[in-house]
Amino acid sequence: MLFDDGKYVELDAGLSSPNPLEFVDRKPYSLRLKEAARITGMKDAVRVGEGNISGKPLIVCAMEFQFIGGSMGAVVGEKIARAIDRCIQKQLPLVIVSCSGGARMMEGTISLMQLAKISASLARLDEVKKPYISVLTNPTTGGTTASFAMLGDLNIAEPGALIGFAGPRVIEQTIHQKLPEGFQTSEFLLEHGMLDAIVPRPELKAYLAKSLDFMGAWNSDETSK
After folding, report:
1. Is the CA virtual torsion 165, 168, 173, 177 positive or negative?
2. Closest Cα partner for 150 from 102, 106, 211?
3. I want to staple 111 with a disulfide (CB 3.0 to 4.6 A). Which of 4, 103, 119, 219 is the partner?
4. Does domain 4-214 sit in CATH 3.20.20.30?
5. Cα distance between residue 211 and residue 197, in whole Å
């Protein structure tokens, strides 16, 4: 939807998890990976593409919730970090579309390391003055929210999206208080200053193109054509 004519070059599509912890719960993690790959046609929970929006180049990372809840393991972290490195190298802006239940616990600490890894990469992108826009869809939760999803130069969400770290029931049980109506919806977060805008999906491409242009995303002579 975001690229001109739907055309883009996919990056790092072949990366897949080696199941580093040999994790097993109700079924082996390796089997979950195979099932998710069969359902989605992807090797992990994020697709990275380079293309044009309104005739100008950028890189987009888009998460897929059907792949183990869009969870972030080593592959997701590596693909996003590589996308950021490519943005720095080619002087391109970045858009990440989040749809995720958070860190992938089947990869343990390796998964949690990705929060810091991506955040550090985004700090390097900021140093070269290239914008990063975060698009939060339904749901965006857990470690994804606690890292790159809320670190955009512009944080925008789709209407009615669930956005937060811990779930409402966990929070209520922890603080022993009833949460406000609509807590953790994109509308609630916008009202309380946690988001910059809410944009319906049909309007998203035009909004992103206009915002990136306003932010000077393509002002540098070094930007790839």
Report:
1. positive
2. 102
3. 103
4. no
5. 11
What is residue 223's predicted lDDT score, i.e. its pLDDT?
47
Residue 165: alpha-carbon gap to chain centroid: 14
Mean pLDDT of each 10-residue bin along the chain, 225 residues long: 97 94 94 97 98 98 98 97 98 98 95 97 98 98 96 98 90 91 93 97 98 93 47
Closest CA to 71 of 102, 112, 106: 102
| Dist. CA 37–CA 135, nearest whole Å | 24
Q: How many helices (H) and strands (E) does the chain have?
A: 7, 7
How far apart (Å, rounded) are the C-alpha atoms in residues 178 and 167? 13
Domain ranges of the chain: 4-214
